Amino acid sequence: MQYEVRTLSAVNAITIVTIDAIDEQDARRQAESRALQPISVRPIVLKTASVSLRQRRFSLLLFSQEMLALIKAGLSLFEAIEALREKESASEVCDILDRLLAALREGRRFSVALAEQGGYFPPLYVGLMQAAEGTSDLPLSLARFVEYQKRIDGIRGKIVSASIYPIILMTVGGAVTVFLVCYVVPRFALVYQDTGRDLPWLSQMMIMWGQLAAKHASEFATVVVASAALSAIWVRRLLRKGGVVHLASRLPMVGHQIHLYELSRLYTTLGMLLEGGIPATNALMTACATVSAATRDRLLAAEQQIRSGRPLSLAFEVNGLTTTISLRMLRVGEQSGQLGAMLTQAAEFYDGDISRFIERFTRTFEPILMAAIGLIVGFIVVLLYMPIFDLAGSLQ
Fold it and tell me: Of 231, 262, 346, 385, whose Cβ has the fewest other Cβ atoms within 10 Å?
């Protein structure tokens, strides 16, 4: 949940930051980890759906890519944002850029201006820009975020692409099955009634269900639409609460890959933040907003152990945030002082494993699904034609 925290900075400036936290106490702890003294904390409640819709229209990746190109071309930060404002036509994006320009004119730091619009700029992005201000290397931080977002979007895109074709197959197969049962079967029933022959039991049952569906077509359609709507609402709630991930994690093979995806996202985030110069404990608190609730609990436990003096690799191992390979890589990173780079390499290893699993799963699941749909449709057709086969056999 997001909280709006009014804080007092080290230079005694009052700022408002938006923090993704479990509760108010967690929000205060995250603010203190950023060297900010919390004054008040209140939860953020979106009053209308149009707010979230407007947030989705603002592409943080596109904004970062354009900013990186303009700054590399020699423009200052203010000039780059001003150039983006001049070419922008969407009103909601113009409002965001106008607020950024106004904050910079007042002398506030870029990270502070971003934090004031936490609904559009997540804590991860704000923390990275704050680290860039300390190193005076904004282009490098922007490039790291662009690469990070492309990797996250790449894995997500592969998962979505792999699920599109099975969904289309199931939709078409379901539509064909409904058409056969509700339209074709009742017309075959009229033909068989005139023959006066006894039908096989399975054919009788199918015809009975077909006639019932045709007789109550409006009620049947209402039930189907209502069931689809309720299922969509249920799935949407599960997605918001992380229930889909929790259920999928219990499936054989799939659960292991979901765990790897969580670790990949965590390692990518931590690697980017550590390479950007952010302290490990602050990076861990920022990374909490990018993982599921179950992983967040383990990450918070690991963060407490790291604060007490344990090495990051040991804290991650105790809390189930490593695999055999990544544990060795983390230990090497700690010994060489390149923990951020080693986390990034571990995430790349996981991404490759996930991509190979998605490819294998798609190649295996799609033919199985097509065969299942073919069997269902073929079974209905065979039951329809069984009486005809019997009649042809008796005539011979």
Answer: 231
